[in-house]
């Protein structure tokens, strides 16, 4: 993955809203941490103050980089005394605008807290500081102890364990290992008044009261600052087998998912089950530099991964599932990687979509949980969103919206070429967990300059090409059409199997509709917890919940 930090920088400098520093805070922070750990000058702060998508972030009062739990606690105490709000930050790869400051807030980066404290061989538990990067730590664990972190996502090179825990990150292996709630045994955290609570345990079982560590899993920095985590880590699978299949319709995908997850399918070797619609594959190929390994573009592409300690069991099971799916006409065709290089190429198609979307232009991102029957296909959320946009936007704005075949094409999951002009809606995600990433992409002239040579004209051969000011207008019109319409549709059609935010969290970008997936009682409980743990509302205020009551 290209470095998230490099990308953030490339998107330009942050807005320069002025803030008034409560007198004496910065010198006090410098005294506590040393001058090199406190940044207050524009350029050096930019990468911390702009989010990965380039949509959120203002100038912080200061960026502080403590190197120990004691230093974190000292910073929090100082801010608490002066009532200055704080935003914790790990790798800054969050996609909901929750990891970057608003004017007048202090940004607390955990990047200097990147040590593994210990690995307990008897219990298979890793204890590591919050700023450890996911990929680096996972590679170390595999190399030194043949264990792995049961979490994998495309931002692994930059995101941190503290950020992963704080967002309850999901990723591609939830289908195998479950979410982070299954692996977090305890956390060490600094509360809003600077109190350090040590919940680090290597015992797999400990029923001595409230399992409070889990309050911090998914709290997005609003209840405390996670400084270290204890994670149960499984043996690293030694072998894996990866396949990609093309399906003609959503019913085929559903039956394939049932097959793969069933007892005659991949069973305990299941490692990942992902899907992309044709528009997402177009996106990965045109903008993400991936190569489509299938002979032609199918309405749906499914990636399956099996992993185990034993090579023959995972590759035999995978071959059996793919062949049976083709015989049963769930899939039309399939390829099974025969080398590590081919495995990487198959994964590149799936993993490059997020970055490809940001390269094409602006976008409206949704990350929802929805029952399989309502994910895609004629009855699904992606088609519903396309139809809704076709009704709401001026004629010709939607890719392929003018095509006579629009209804049948989009009913089958087809989206039209993403290298044409216009808004397109693509769906992909962790189909094994019912997690859909639904994105509306709006091409920008500025981004088009990054197109492969000779393709720029193609991008704007469609009905609409936007100049930057028109793009901003198009973005707000698409946003207004989709939000909160899609989350409401998901809530209405998905029942108890639905959530308007599956794995990216709430941050600020989903504040206006997160409540759709929270009952009245849940909302009240969350507010009571927040008030009890952070009575001055200083930790990531206005994220996850509004601060207005
Ligand atoms: C290309 C790409 C692919 C992605 N794929 C996935 C995916 O498949 N699944 C998924 O779930 N997410 C995905 N994400 C989102 C993101 O990577 C995750 O949310 C990740 O867990 C964030 O970790 P981070 O260290 O970057 O946290 P940050 O972005 O720095 O912070 C995220 C939130 O956690 C808080 N926080 C961070 N560290 C701490 C701490 N130590 N204590 C308290 N609060 C803290 C921040 O205040 C913020 O609210 C993806 C992002 C990108 C860019």
Mind explaining what this structure looks like?
With 549 residues, this protein is α+β, with helices and mostly antiparallel strands. 34% of the residues lie in helices and 17% in strands. The protein contains 20 helices and 16 strands. The strands form 3 sheets. The protein has a 7-stranded antiparallel β-sheet with strand order 13-10-12-11-15-16-14, sandwiched between helices. A 5-stranded antiparallel β-sheet has the order 5-6-9-7-8. It has a 4-stranded mixed β-sheet with strand order 1-2-4-3, with helices on both faces. Helix 2 runs antiparallel to helix 4 and helix 9 packs across helix 12. The longest helix has 17 residues. The chain is globular. The chain binds flavin-adenine dinucleotide.
Shape: globular
Largest sheet: 7 strands, antiparallel
Range of strand content: 15-25%
Which molecules are bound in this entry?
flavin-adenine dinucleotide
Mean pLDDT: 88
Strands of the biggest beta sheet: in what spatial order?
13-10-12-11-15-16-14
From the alpha carbons, calculate the radius of gyration and give it in angstroms.
Answer: 23 Å
Distance between the termini: 41 Å
Query: Which structural class fits the helix and strand makeup?
Result: alpha+beta
Helical residues, percent: 25-40%
pLDDT under 50 segments (min length 5)? 1-20, 401-417, 451-463
Helical element count? 20
Count the beta strands. Answer: 16
């Amino acid at each position: 993955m290209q470095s998230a930090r490099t990308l953030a920088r490339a998107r330009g400098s942050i807005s320069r809203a002025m803030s008034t520093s409560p007198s004496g805070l910065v010198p006090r922070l410098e005294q506590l941490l040393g001058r090199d750990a406190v940044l207050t000058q524009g350029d050096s702060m930019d990468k911390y103050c702009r989010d990965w998508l380039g949509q959120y972030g203002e100038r912080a009062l200061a960026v502080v980089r403590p190197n120990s739990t004691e230093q974190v606690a000292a910073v929090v105490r100082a801010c608490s005394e002066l009532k200055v709000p704080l935003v914790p930050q790990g790798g800054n790869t969050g996609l909901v605008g929750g990891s970057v400051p608003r004017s007048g807030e202090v940004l607390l980066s955990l990047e200097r807290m990147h040590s593994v404290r210990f690995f307990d061989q008897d219990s298979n538990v890793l204890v590591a500081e919050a700023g450890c990067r996911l990929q680096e730590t996972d590679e170390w664990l595999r190399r030194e102890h043949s264990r792995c972190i049961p979490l994998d996502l495309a931002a692994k090179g930059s995101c941190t364990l503290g950020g992963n825990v704080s967002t309850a990150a999901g990723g591609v292996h939830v289908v195998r290992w479950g979410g982070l709630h299954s692996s977090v045994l305890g956390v060490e955290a600094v509360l809003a008044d600077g109190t350090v609570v040590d919940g680090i345990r290597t015992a797999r079982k400990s029923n001595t009261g409230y399992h409070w560590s889990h309050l911090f899993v998914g709290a997005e920095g609003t209840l405390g600052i996670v400084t270290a985590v204890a994670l149960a880590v499984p043996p690293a699978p030694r072998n894996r087998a990866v396949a990609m299949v093309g399906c003609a319709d959503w019913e085929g995908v559903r039956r394939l998912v049932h097959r793969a997850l069933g007892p005659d399918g991949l069973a305990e070797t299941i490692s990942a089950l992902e899907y992309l619609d044709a528009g997402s594959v177009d996106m990965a190929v045109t903008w993400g530099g991936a190569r489509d390994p299938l002979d032609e573009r199918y309405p749906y592409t499914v990636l399956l991964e099996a992993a185990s300690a034993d090579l023959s069991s995972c590759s035999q099971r995978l071959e059996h599932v793919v062949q049976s799916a083709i015989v049963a006409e769930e899939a039309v065709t399939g390829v099974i990687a025969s080398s590590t290089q081919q495995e990487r190429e198959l994964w590149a198609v799936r993993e490059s979509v997020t970055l490809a979307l940001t390269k094409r232009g602006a976008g409206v991102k949704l990350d929802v949980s929805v029952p399989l029957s309502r994910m895609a296909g004629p009855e699904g959320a992606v088609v519903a969103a396309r139809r809704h946009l076709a009704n709401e936007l001026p004629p010709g704005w939607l890719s392929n919206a003018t095509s006579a075949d629009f209804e049948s094409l989009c009913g089958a999951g087809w989206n039209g070429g993403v290298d044409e002009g216009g808004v397109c809606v693509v769906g992909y995600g962790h189909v094994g967990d019912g997690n859909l990433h639904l994105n509306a992409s709006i091409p920008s002239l500025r981004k088009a300059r990054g197109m492969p040579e000779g393709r720029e004209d193609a991008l704007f051969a469609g009905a609409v090409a936007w100049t930057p000011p028109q793009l901003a207008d198009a973005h707000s019109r698409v946003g207004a059409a989709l939000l909160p319409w899609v989350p409401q549709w998901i809530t209405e059609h998905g029942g108890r199997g639905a959530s308007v935010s599956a794995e990216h969290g709430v941050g600020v970008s989903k504040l206006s509709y997160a409540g759709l997936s929270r009952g009245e009682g849940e909302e009240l409980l969350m507010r009571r917890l927040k008030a009890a743990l952070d009575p001055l509302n200083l930790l990531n205020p206005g994220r996850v919940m509004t601060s207005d009551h």
